[in-house]
Specification:
This protein has helices at about 15-30, 55-70, 85-90, 95, 115-120, 170-175, 185-195, 220-230, 250-260, 275-280, 285-300, 320-330, 360-380, and strands at about 5-10, 35, 45-50, 80-85, 105, 130, 155-160, 160, 180, 200-205, 235-240, 265, 305-310, 335-340, 390-395, 405-410, 420, 430-440, 445-449. The chain is of the alpha/beta class and about 450 residues long. The strands form five sheets. Strands 2-1-3-4-5-6 form a six-stranded parallel beta sheet, with helices on both faces. It has a five-stranded mixed barrel with strand order 15-16-17-19-18. Strands 7-10-11 form a three-stranded parallel beta sheet. The longest helix has 24 residues, at about 360-380. The radius of gyration is 22 Å and the shape is globular.
Length: about 450
């Protein structure tokens, strides 16, 4: 029985998490038992990210940690499997670097995970290669039964895979392939299934959600998709991630404003706010376009909560250009902000650029930005004190006096802080009304109404 038990570790972004959930569903249908305890599993599976150096380092560390269970760590593990972006990017190179791993599988292997594990456990192909990496063409559909691993009441829905933007710093197109959108009917069918399973919040994700449909016949729009998702019975919230500023059309913004279920929340990764840096990054548009898109979003969607992500330390980011970024942050006042240190990735056009920034200076700049953002976030959060908010309850609270932890419409999971609740014990996965009574840099504190 131990050989048929599988423990899955999912690393990286929500899109990768969906792949892990699909693999878990396929394995469950194939007769495998899923366990959250690695010491119980016969097979340990690590689904990896390889976007930037810290992601690769995390993946290697986790693989070695799982290998310890296999190599006399007191567990039941007999096989270690590594899937996802790391094998897709490095292929057979990993076989020599990580001899502890029995099998490396690329992203195209997701729908075939049951067959791969069956062959591995039966000893078939023992003398054959340890890696199976094909072209990154896999695109999930509603027929794939997922085992949802997010907190009760919330789930991601991946509307496309791959990316065709070709930013100069990014390896995603080479790992995940060109952008491939799912059909609207197929996405809606999956959403209906998720709602029937008790999902209240649907989080729409892709590498670039605003590129949805550009590759399909008839070019279905993201706006049309969102309206059809909003019509799905049982869903209460729909949240949109990863929107490209140059594709924030008035039609899309109008849909968000008009549909009650769609959270007034926009994730707009702008990456930088200096025209020279944006051009070197091969980003479409300039600072004027970004500023216009944000102004239009705030005009059409009153009270919209804005999130962005930035890269500091890109080659050529002089002190003046970094100051431009700081000034922009102070001017725009994003509700939420995440930041990455530029990672020089082989195979990208940016890797050949001169004027590199030392790692220590990158870290210093990140700290400056986050200190600035903490002040902005606290000020914005403070304006919410006394307001009534809807929150989705995620689980038991960890702070004294606050029985539950939740999120309001302006907070995406994992990245935007939480709302701590007092005054009751609502069930996990339910949506309740509360009043905000306090705030800090990132979290809100509320009492249930």
């Amino acid at each position: 029985m131990h050989a048929k038990k599988v423990h899955i570790v999912s690393l990286g972004c929500p899109k990768n998490l969906v792949d892990s959930e699909v693999m878990a569903g396929i394995l469950a249908e194939s007769g495998y038992l899923l366990t959250d305890r690695p010491e119980e599993a016969g097979v340990l599976l690590v689904n990896t990210c390889a976007f930037i150096l810290p992601a690769r380092e995390e993946a290697i560390a986790e693989i070695l940690r799982m290998a310890a269970w296999k190599q006399g760590g007191g567990g039941s593990c007999t096989h270690l499997v590594v899937t996802g972006c790391l094998p897709q990017r490095y292929g057979k190179e990993l076989e020599e670097a990580l001899p502890e791993v029995d099998l490396f599988l690329g992203t195209a292997a997701v729908p075939h995970i049951g067959r791969h594990l069956d062959a591995l456990l039966s000893g078939i192909g023992k003398r054959r290669r340890r890696s199976a990496v094909g072209r990154p063409t896999f695109l999930m559909n509603a027929g794939h039964k997922r085992l949802i691993s997010t907190p009760a009441g919330s789930a991601y829905i991946k509307i496309a895979d791959g990316c065709s933007n070709r930013c100069s710093y990014c390896v995603i197109p080479s790992i995940r392939g060109k952008a491939r959108s799912r059909a609207i009917d197929d996405i809606v069918k999956e959403a209906e299934g998720l709602a029937a399973r008790g999902i209240r919040e649907l989080i729409v994700t892709a590498q670039d959600t605003t590129a949805y449909g550009l590759d399909r016949k008839g070019k279905p729009t993201l706006s049309r998709l969102l309206r059809e998702l909003a019509a799905v019975k049982g869903l209460s919230w729909i949240r949109l991630l990863y929107t490209y500023p140059s594709r924030l059309t008035e039609e899309l913004l109008g849909t968000i404003a008009e549909e009650e279920k769609i959270c007034r929340y926009l994730d707009i990764p702008i990456q930088h706010s200096d025209d020279t840096i944006l051009a070197a990054m091969h980003r479409r548009g300039n600072v004027a376009l970004i500023r216009k898109a944000i102004a239009k979003a705030r005009e059409i969607i009153p009270g919209v909560s804005l999130r962005t992500s930035l890269i500091v330390g890109f080659p050529g980011e002089t002190r003046r250009r970094f100051e431009n970024l700081l000034s922009f942050i102070r001017e725009i006042r994003f509700d939420h902000l995440g930041i990455f240190l530029y990672s020089r990735e082989e195979g990208t056009k940016a890797a050949a650029l001169p004027s590199r920034i030392p790692e220590r200076e990158k870290e210093r700049r990140r700290n400056i930005v986050m200190e600035e953002q903490a002040l902005i976030s606290r000020e914005i959060n403070s304006t919410l004190i006394g307001t009534r908010q809807e929150v989705l309850v995620e689980g038991k609270g960890e702070l004294s006096g606050y029985s539950r932890v939740a999120r309001c419409r302006r907070q995406a999971p994992e990245i935007d802080g939480v709302t701590h609740l007092k005054g009751g014990n609502p069930e996990t996965g339910t949506i309740v009304a509360c009043r905000i009574i306090a705030a800090d840099d990132y979290d809100l504190f509320a009492e249930i109404l």
